[in-house]
Amino acid sequence: MSRMTLLLLAMCLIFGTTSAMAELENVQVGGELRIKADWIINWAVEPGPFEVRVPASLLPRRPIGEFVSGAPAFNGLGLVSPYAFDDKTNDLYLIEQRTKLNVKADFTNDVSAFIELESYDFWGEDFRSNYVTGVDSRANSSDDVEVYQAYIEAANMWGTPLQVRIGRQELAFGSQWLVGPKDFGPFYRGRSFDALRLTYPGESFRVDAWASTLAESGISEQDGDVWFYGIYATCTAIENVTFDAYWMWVRDARSLNDTNFIAPIEWLEDVFSVDDYDTTNLHTVGLRAAGAFGAFDFDVEGAYQFGDADQVGFGFKPFLYGDDSADFDAWGLTAEAGYTFDIVWNPRVFLKYSFYQGEDNRDLAFGDWINPFYRPESSVSFNRLFSNDMYNGFWDLQNDFSNGHAFTLGAIAHPSESLDLIADVNYYLVDEPFDSPAYFTVGSWRVPLAPALSFWTEEGDDELGWTTDIMLVYHYSEDLMFSLHWCHLFAGDAIEDGAFFANNGLVFGGGSDKDDGEFITFETRICF
Hints:
Elements: H1 3-15, E1 24-41, E2 51-55, E3 67-68, E4 71-72, E5 78-81, E6 92-107, E7 111-122, E8 145-154, E9 163-169, E10 193-201, E11 205-215, E12 226-235, E13 241-252, H2 263-271, E14 280-293, E15 296-308, H3 310-313, E16 327-340, E17 348-356, H4 366-370, E18 404-416, E19 419-430, E20 435-437, E21 439-442, E22 445-448, E23 457-459, E24 463-475, E25 480-491, H5 493-497, E26 499-502, E27 507-509, E28 517-527
Antiparallel strand pairs: 1-6, 1-28, 2-5, 3-4, 6-7, 7-8, 8-9, 9-10, 10-11, 11-12, 12-13, 13-14, 14-15, 15-16, 16-17, 17-18, 18-19, 19-24, 20-23, 21-22, 24-25, 25-28, 26-27
């Protein structure tokens, strides 16, 4: 479906619902202000450059996949990591502020419009005065205020429950395990989509369908655009129980080329089937069941991903060419069960488990090492899509932890009407560990045994470690909230060995050590 066709369809849906012009009936103004201080100890190299953990000279011919922040890097440096986990690393201190202001206008004929502006800043980045010289100057604030949401919505179309919403908007479905607005946190501000969304709510069911543009090339849909489509159906026919089923599709048609040679060589590439990338098609199908029976509650969701993964395979280039036959083929699962006790503080105890299937084909067999025609395979783990789940503040700040398992035991209590107390302990494992070059140790140093023999490897550890959380939330009023969150990391051996668990399993997460870490935040939020 072209963009022009999509736009015309949306206009017909909205303006074809009535023969009379809608009139303004009501205007509401609202907003939100959030200020959050973060202190992260022994955590990351960020916001500085990534650090080299394994030089490229120790990885000849191995299909590592050079990705930095989830994008192909091709830096030739070897394995680089955004994490330090070293008490010699500078701690990270920052105060971030998110400001949102919105206006909703209701018209006749069930038509409304919603516009929301957003500004996201770190304290001090826009200060306009130089205290040394006393000179005031304009700060570079041209991109501070953005349109976060702006859409038109029409309901009860043609006398049916059908609703249509077109424009920039948040998308959130189910438990937001795979699609959500991404809550406020360090280095990110939230997520909205440029989309057309249709919703049909019934008495015991609801169906949502959407088409969203994620990247626009300005050329054509077939060459350069990234789209996100989906259908999400919910059934509530059983009291207190919800069943969901969905299909989501990310279509990425951005052009990929390993080379741009003259015609005869391009012809040879066709003969040998190299540099032949197809459109990436990430399909995700899943089921969810959630509900409550008395004091017991549960939420279980599973998803399977399939399709062409050429955008990922493009990054796996131990030679001139990447993997143009990469595929998505991975499972994901999250399950939570809780029980609320009818005693003082109304404590709820819960268990949670999450699994994101990983793939690590980055080792090299001896037969492959001596084979001059060897074509390496890429490593494609479960893609978290646009998840709103964050497991910890150390390696999941971008909601992109994959190729791993997460186990949680926690409790929530309410010492008073205005105070919430949350505590949990979490354990993390790597699903597919990384095979490091074979080495022997001298004190704390790892000395490679045979750098040229890249088939000679040693499997890394799979234990990332434990985290403990304590969080206090104080509701001063219905509009004003304060919270304090402390998280401690007990680092495991996989922290130092390193594995590909960051950025959907595409970025190496290895520290220069395995020192414990702290993640402390204080936040205040007011809504109006």
